[in-house]
UniProtKB/TrEMBL annotation:
InterPro entries: Spherulin4
Pfam families reported for this sequence: Spherulin4
Name of this protein: Cell surface spherulin 4-like protein
Length: 253
């Protein structure tokens, strides 16, 4: 059985009026596609108890959509940040709906960036405790999702500590090199539903059937995918191939 595709969106686009419209439009057009969207007000939730008024206006336009999960960005610096600092950022996201008196500010979980690839018992304990923290937070829900981003294939013990893992983040040329070197060959097929690939700097001539082939290859590794032709500010805007990519994801299901 072919699993359902999910478009992964690192939404590091500041929500000025209309800035998120290309995403909202696509979400409405492709109801059979799921979207995982990561918001990042200030390299995390920001220093204040609530994000600014633009975020307060735009985040509910995502959380109300039935085919969207919204995650808050938190960096771990490869499990080297003080646990209390990371804990506080998780709690700040979880408090948004109560502090803002708006249930539509409730996110679905946390995207932990810069997680380690090589196994280390203390790092594993750090991440395990963070997962427990997210799963127990009242302000997330109902899924309380945890996603790790090592940016490469992590050692197997880490795969069980999160609901999702980013097994590739980088430019197109690097993805092709790793694909040709069979770096992804050891990933069990049953893990695909928990994995994500993020590819930027795709050449402009990779379109049509060539882009379709790329989406097919990436989908053989991971159910959650983000592909953009942008080579600068690739998480801060939507490229010209955005609609084509989502359409190909929809047809890959």
């Amino acid at each position: 059985m072919v699993s359902k595709p999910t478009v992964f969106v690192p939404l590091y686009v500041y929500p000025a009026p209309g800035a998120w419209s290309p995403l909202i439009k696509i979400i409405h057009e492709y109801r059979d596609v799921e979207f995982t969207v990561v918001v990042n007000p200030g390299s995390g939730p920001g220093p204040d108890v609530l994000p600014d008024s633009n975020y307060l206006r735009e985040i509910p336009t995502l959380t109300v959509e039935p085919n969207v999960h919204v995650l808050g960005y938190v960096a771990t610096n490869y499990a080297n940040r003080p646990f209390e600092t990371v804990q506080a950022e998780v709690a700040r996201y979880a408090d948004w709906p109560s502090v803002g008196s708006n249930p539509a500010l409730a996110l679905d979980g946390i995207f932990f960036d810069e997680t380690p690839q090589a196994y280390n018992p203390s790092a594993a304990k750090f991440l395990e405790e963070l997962s427990i923290l997210v799963k127990c937070q009242q302000g997330f829900g109902p899924s309380n999702i945890v996603v790790h981003n090592p940016g490469t294939v992590p050692e197997p013990p880490y795969l069980t500590l999160a609901d999702g893992n980013v097994v590739f983040e980088g430019p197109y040329d690097l993805f092709c090199a790793r694909w040709n070197a069979d770096i992804f060959a050891g990933i069990p097929p049953e893990s695909r539903s928990k994995l994500c690939c993020i590819i930027h700097s795709v050449p402009r001539d990779v379109s049509g059937d060539t882009l379709k082939s790329l989406v097919s290859d990436v989908r053989s590794i991971a159910d959650e995918v983000f592909i953009t032709h942008l080579s600068q500010d690739y998480y801060a805007s939507f490229g010209s191939g955005w609609s084509e990519f989502v359409n190909l994801m929809a047809s890959s299901s």
